[in-house]
Amino acid sequence: MVLLLMFFCVIFIEGVNTVGVTEMERLYSDLFARYNPEVRPSLSSSQTTEVTVQMSLAHIMDLDIKQQVLHLIGFVSLRWTDQKLTWTPGMYGGIDHLFVRQNQVWKPDIAVINSVSDKVYVGDKEVLVVVTSNGSVTWEPVINMQVTCQVNILKYPFDESICGLELTSWMYSEDSVPLRITKTPLRMVMAEHSQYRVKFHNAEIFKINHHGAFYTKLNFLFKLSRRASYLVLILVLPVTLLAILCVVSFMLSPEVPEKTSLAITILLAYTVYLDIVDKELPEISVQISHFVKYLTVLLFLSFFCVTGNAIVFVVHKRGKARELATQEVTSVTHYSDDSTVKPSPNQSSFHSADVNMSECKGRRLQWRHKTKAEKMNFIFLVLNSVLLALAISGYFFSVL
């Protein structure tokens, strides 16, 4: 008895499944028997097919600021009404929606006009389209493209850029396929990005006049703000510390020749950083980054530091040479006087006074030369410190 009951249950379930598949096949056959996906679904040529568009941003792969190209991943939700794909669910076993491939139904020819990839049109033959019983069609193709982006490098590495996706119907004008946006035109479904954060997003509608026909263009915009912590640690902070180290070189004594070598090493380090920044930023003259200006000013200050240290060192060496020459002349003069004339006791006292006066003059001369080098060193120290303070404050006031 139990086995017989189980047998009838299996037969009943298989019968229900068979009925369901049959109803689905019959619905599919009735809908697409005379359906042409190349023809726009309207009862008359004057009737428009309004398409509602919503974009969802899933991930930002990369923003190449040198090439000004944004690589993004997302999907676009497009909805319209196909009056040729309507049915009564009660006549087909209660089926109220249907999944078909996108090439089996009519769809708008949506193109990304700011794409730099080989692929311009959205959609793929494997993408499914949802068709409901009232004729509503929902198409959600995935977008994995590289698009142009106007990068604002003025405040690099604290830069903010407005990027986006520009969609339009390539052949259908506003008179036949008008494009509209939803109340929430751009949804953010992406996780937190490690390099950029999205500050705001919006959508705009434009009308393009092409040979007398108006076409709708949708701009889905979002502002990307760079997380600058990493670049501050590897770019801004090191070049600032190098500039401070250049000022410190003037605190060394003029007798130390290594101070000039230190200044030259700092100058070479700035050229390396200029090469790094040149590989990162675009080569444009319309908008020059404040960081490039800041780095160039620090490069000139480093050159000024090398020149100042060299001048101080040369002045110090000349003072030393003059001091040695004065001491030699004084020694020879005293030796000649002692060998030719034998002074009397009174003359000896006068001669001792002359020697003391010569020594005082030599010391004054030596002090005068040493003081001149030290004074020049101090002047370069103060001047370089003031210029560096102005450069640092000017840069941070311009970017913050």
From TrEMBL:
<dbReference type="Pfam" id="PF02932">
    <property type="entry name" value="Neur_chan_memb"/>
</dbReference>
<keyword id="KW-0407">Ion channel</keyword>
<feature type="transmembrane region" description="Helical">
    <location>
        <begin position="378"/>
        <end position="397"/>
    </location>
</feature>
<feature type="signal peptide">
    <location>
        <begin position="1"/>
        <end position="18"/>
    </location>
</feature>
<protein>
    <recommendedName>
        <fullName>Neurotransmitter-gated ion-channel ligand-binding domain-containing protein</fullName>
    </recommendedName>
</protein>
<feature type="transmembrane region" description="Helical">
    <location>
        <begin position="230"/>
        <end position="253"/>
    </location>
</feature>
<dbReference type="InterPro" id="IPR018000">
    <property type="entry name" value="Neurotransmitter_ion_chnl_CS"/>
</dbReference>
<keyword id="KW-1133">Transmembrane helix</keyword>
<keyword id="KW-0732">Signal</keyword>
<dbReference type="GO" id="GO:0004888">
    <property type="term" value="F:transmembrane signaling receptor activity"/>
</dbReference>
<dbReference type="Pfam" id="PF02931">
    <property type="entry name" value="Neur_chan_LBD"/>
</dbReference>
<dbReference type="GO" id="GO:0016020">
    <property type="term" value="C:membrane"/>
</dbReference>
<comment type="similarity">
    <text>Belongs to the ligand-gated ion channel (TC 1.A.9) family.</text>
</comment>
<feature type="domain" description="Neurotransmitter-gated ion-channel ligand-binding">
    <location>
        <begin position="25"/>
        <end position="210"/>
    </location>
</feature>
<dbReference type="InterPro" id="IPR036734">
    <property type="entry name" value="Neur_chan_lig-bd_sf"/>
</dbReference>
<dbReference type="InterPro" id="IPR006029">
    <property type="entry name" value="Neurotrans-gated_channel_TM"/>
</dbReference>
<dbReference type="InterPro" id="IPR036719">
    <property type="entry name" value="Neuro-gated_channel_TM_sf"/>
</dbReference>
<keyword id="KW-0812">Transmembrane</keyword>
<keyword id="KW-0472">Membrane</keyword>
<dbReference type="GO" id="GO:0005230">
    <property type="term" value="F:extracellular ligand-gated monoatomic ion channel activity"/>
</dbReference>
<dbReference type="InterPro" id="IPR038050">
    <property type="entry name" value="Neuro_actylchol_rec"/>
</dbReference>
<keyword id="KW-0406">Ion transport</keyword>
<keyword id="KW-0813">Transport</keyword>
<feature type="domain" description="Neurotransmitter-gated ion-channel transmembrane">
    <location>
        <begin position="236"/>
        <end position="332"/>
    </location>
</feature>
<dbReference type="InterPro" id="IPR006201">
    <property type="entry name" value="Neur_channel"/>
</dbReference>
<dbReference type="InterPro" id="IPR006202">
    <property type="entry name" value="Neur_chan_lig-bd"/>
</dbReference>
<feature type="transmembrane region" description="Helical">
    <location>
        <begin position="297"/>
        <end position="315"/>
    </location>
</feature>
